[in-house]
Each structure stands twice: as structure tokens, then as C-alpha cells.
Design goal:
By secondary structure, the chain is mainly beta. The protein is about 10% helix and about 40% strand.
Length: about 170
């Protein structure tokens, strides 16, 4: 009797576990700035909603986010040498500091989420370019850098632009 009750409980538990909806999958990549690949934050993508969240740390602020999700690498805008063209990416968000608008360091945007347009599902290629800035008190001015979500270089040795395949996680 005890064995059959245990078997029923185990069977019901398995049915409930298998019937439960899968939770959203969120994957993270480092946000690397400049040719030196300075880690300035993180990019997270939720594959169920195609939403990305860009977060900076260490005093870095977000100036501009440009992203493109595509079904293939060739679906990401690029020139004939495979250098990507972030200005042609389908999704972007600007935070008003690209003209070096004066503000108090630390008052800028350090985390932002937005939804991507384009296909969703495994196998999608994603490129995320972020313009970041940090205030350098030694020169009393802002220093700007381009940053990419860590992945595979578009054109190895030619630039530091990167993309990744969402299913590679």
C-alpha cells in the first residue's frame, strides 16, 4: 500500500512538473568597451520576450543603445568588409547625452530595458552596440567609448564589433 501510494505521488509530481509552463530564459553577456575590451557592464536578453536590459557599472553611463536581432549574421546591417553599421540597426534608444550635455556625474542612465523588433526563437543572431561615457575628473570632461555585448567578432582583427547567437548559451 505504501509503495503504491508513493508511486502515485511521484507520478502526479512528474505530471505537474512537465505540465508547468517554462519560465522565461534570460541570458547575460559582458558589455565590453573599446579595443581593450574594458568590462563596463552587462547585457541581458530575455528570449521569451525579446527584451534586452543594458546595465553599466563602475561610473559608466549609457548614452545610446543600438541593437539588431536577425535570423542570420547577414541580417545584421554591415558593409562589404563585415563591419557592422549600428546606425542602421532596427532598435535604438538615446539618452540625450550624445552632445555632451552637462550634468552631474552619476545622474545619468545606468540601466535600461527595451524590446527588440524582429524574429524570436533559438538561432537568432544579436548585436548590441552601446555608447557609454564616464566622467574623467583629471581632464574635467566626459570620455566616450563604443561598447559591444561580448560574443564573436564580426571581422576578426579589423574591429572589436561583436555579435552572438542566442542559442549558444
Amino acid at each position: 500500500m505504501k509503495k503504491s501510494l508513493l508511486a502515485v505521488v511521484l507520478a502526479l509530481t512528474m505530471i505537474l512538473l512537465l505540465a508547468a509552463p517554462a519560465s522565461a530564459a534570460t541570458y547575460n553577456r559582458n558589455l565590453l568597451a573599446g579595443r581593450q575590451g574594458v568590462d563596463v557592464g552587462n547585457v541581458a536578453i530575455n528570449t521569451d520576450t525579446n527584451q534586452i536590459t543594458v546595465t553599466t557599472d563602475g561610473g559608466w553611463e549609457i548614452i545610446l543603445v543600438q541593437a539588431r536581432i536577425a535570423g542570420s549574421k547577414s541580417g545584421i546591417p554591415h558593409n562589404k568588409n563585415w563591419n557592422p553599421r549600428p546606425s542602421q540597426f532596427a532598435d535604438s534608444a538615446s539618452y540625450g547625452y550624445e552632445t555632451a550635455t552637462p550634468h552631474t556625474p552619476g545622474d545619468g542612465v545606468t540601466s535600461e530595458a527595451f524590446s527588440l523588433s524582429g524574429p524570436s526563437g533559438s538561432g537568432d543572431y544579436l548585436a548590441v552596440h552601446v555608447v557609454v561615457a564616464i566622467y574623467d575628473s583629471g581632464i574635467s570632461d566626459w570620455v566616450f567609448e563604443g561598447a559591444w555585448a561580448a560574443g564573436t567578432q564580426f571581422n576578426s582583427g579589423k574591429n572589436f564589433a561583436q555579435y552572438y547567437v542566442v542559442s549558444d548559451f
